[in-house]
Amino acid sequence: MRAAFLHLVTGLTLSAASVSTALAAELDINGMALGMSADQVIAKFQEVRPDAQYEFAKWKLPEGTEWVANGRTLYNDLANPDDMEHERMQFAFTGLGSGNKLFAARRELKFRPSQRPTTESVYEAAVRKFGEPSVTGKSTTGIWAAWKFSSADAKAEKLESPMACIGTSDFPVGLDEFTAKRTKQSASMCGIYIDFDVRGDETGLATELNMKMMDQLHLEQDFDADNADARKRIDAAKAKNVGNAAPPPKL
């Protein structure tokens, strides 16, 4: 773990910490909104995909405090193996000091072969949800678009070209030192960024949808708050341990 004080442990038990959801409600992917807690994300996912699988991982401080750092979900419509719909999602959360809230989400959806929408209708649905995109482009088989917001309640800014604000291979595993340093340099450039790509064939029908969303506006401050909280917890544990520690061995 690269961040100070942060160590990784895996588990399915979720934190019940209350999290602010100050960001606008429309900034979500399939109902899972930026600012949600892990409990809220799982509750929404179970509502949407009651038969799906999910796994969330926790990070742990040396004194024992844990929080949800990231999660992933898996849905395959096994009841229809010859006409299957697939969906995978990923999530990344901040630490305890900043509210342990969702700051990045990713979705990969492969449409059921018998129920393929048009690529145009999927794109139009995205425009209705997020507003006019900052930048967009089309090919003979698909449409891509991106939205860059300078705040949660602002309209998307116009861009001349898309920006590499959310990686695929390096999707955040949580708010660690690496992510905080990276977004410190790109926060003003990327803001709240949504990446959208719907693909299909030349007949106009869509086969898959890929979306990514990330809020980089406050990650530097959130990381500082997380580490300040971690230091406070560790110092309190140290003070308690010093008073209750066993005597040293005979040397």
Considering the chains and any ligands shown, give keywords for the structure.
251 residues, alpha+beta, 9-stranded antiparallel sheet, two-stranded antiparallel ribbon, 4 helices, 30% strand
Structural class: alpha+beta
- Low-confidence runs: 1-25
- State the order of secondary-structure elements, H for helix, E for strand: EEEHEEEEHEEHEEH
Strand order of the largest sheet: 1-4-5-6-7-11-10-9-8
Termini gap:
35 Å
**Residue-averaged pLDDT:** 88
Q: Roughly how many Å is the radius of gyration?
A: 21 Å
Fraction of residues in β-strands: 25-35%
Helix proportion: 25-40%
Instruction: Compute the number of helices.
Output: 4
The tally of strands reads 11
What's the shape? globular
Q: What characterizes the major β-sheet?
A: 9 strands, antiparallel
Please describe the topology of this protein:
Elements: E1 7-10, E2 28-29, E3 32-33, H1 38-48, E4 53-60, E5 66-76, E6 86-93, E7 102-110, H2 119-130, E8 135-138, E9 142-149, H3 177-190, E10 192-200, E11 206-215, H4 219-244
Antiparallel strand pairs: 1-4, 2-3, 4-5, 5-6, 6-7, 7-11, 8-9, 9-10, 10-11
Compact summary:
With about 250 residues, the chain is of the alpha+beta class. It has helices at about 40-50, 120-130, 175-190, 220-245, and strands at about 5-10, 30, 30-35, 55-60, 65-75, 85-95, 100-110, 135-140, 140-150, 190-200, 205-215.
